[in-house]
Amino acid sequence: MRIALVHDFLTQLGGAERLLQVFHQMFPDAPVFTLVYDERKTAGRFRGWDIRASFLQRFSRVVNYKWLLPLMPRAIESFDFAGFDLVLSDSSAFAKGIKVHAPAVHICYCHTPTRYLWQEPDEYVAKLGIIFFLKPLVQLYLMKILRKWDYRAAQRPDLLIANSREVQTRIQKFYGRGSTVVYPPLDTDFFRPTIPKADYFLTATRLEPYKRVELVIEVFNELGWPLKIAGSGSAFEGLKALAKNNVEFFGRVGDEKLRDLYSGARAFIFPALEDAGLVVLESLACGTPVIAYGRGGVSEFVRDGENGVLFDEQSAPSIRQALQRFEARVFSGESLRAGAEAFGKEKFISAIQAIVSKAI
């Protein structure tokens, strides 16, 4: 059986790229089709793979690939899957829109319906930094043209898999389609306690505006408690300027360093409205409780008072109250890890294999 994998962009490292690595582990001979590939920004993680980038690749060397947005639907539709029996895509934007013809089967693992089209269009436009009088034109394109394409694209896969019940609800709401929930794969063999606990709190994520890391910094600036932040992104410099001396930035870190940071932290703080939040599971597997915003997919992993503390609002006062509640509780690292093991990679692989076997 000939299998192809499809991924939106290979230009960063995050939870979606961890999932792609598991797909590739399952199907090591499968080529990976993607809109744009940047080996440097992915730290060589995919070196040696059969990566097949779209025609946007040559333009991405001279302009930021995000400015190529109007060309992305055409680029994703340009891939030819003739001769493949199964195409397995994972998508939070364009990959679901590939055109696959029978008898081949297209299964899409959906991280979320495209955020900047259905949930955060204003924030996305603001992040582009375009001249103010062009913003209405960009918003018109997103809402009137690209959103319609995105809806049509979501009807193309033969099967949709959601990475959480939260995303399953969004798929039904925005795309009018049913889906099967398969939680993302957690590598419990790798993510385990490695060092003793130390006196600091941790947040690790891509530093983008919607992640709301500025709220955590605001609270820790007031408290003066040690906070470590791992990750890079467009908000990095602004967040660094906001932080006081008790806040330490690490930038993008390797998996071994991240595992140590998880293991040594008193708690992992996660203020974002997230689709699933694999980093939350990684923290729990390292024996570290989680303080998180209680909406979105994270609430499916974090149980208030059992393996962490949930807060109700994305606000500094709400995070401060959650920290106070955390201080009054004691968590067992062994229990935290035992709970995380239910989301192990082997369970994910078995679930995907069962779906594929039934579909082919």
From TrEMBL:
An example molecular function term from Gene Ontology annotations: glycosyltransferase activity
Biological-process GO terms, alphabetical: lipopolysaccharide biosynthetic process
The segment(s) forming the Glycosyl transferase family domain are 194-327
Would I find Transferase among this entry's keywords?
A: yes
Domain named Glycosyltransferase subfamily 4-like N-terminal: which ranges? 41-189
Bilayer-crossing residues are none
Is GTP-binding a UniProt keyword of this protein?
Answer: no
Q: Which UniProt keywords apply?
A: Transferase
**Which PANTHER family does the annotation name?**
GLYCOSYLTRANSFERASE WBBK-RELATED (PTHR46401:SF2)
This chain belongs to which protein, by name?
A: Uncharacterized protein
Q: Which organism is it from?
A: Candidatus Doudnabacteria bacterium RIFCSPHIGHO2_01_52_17
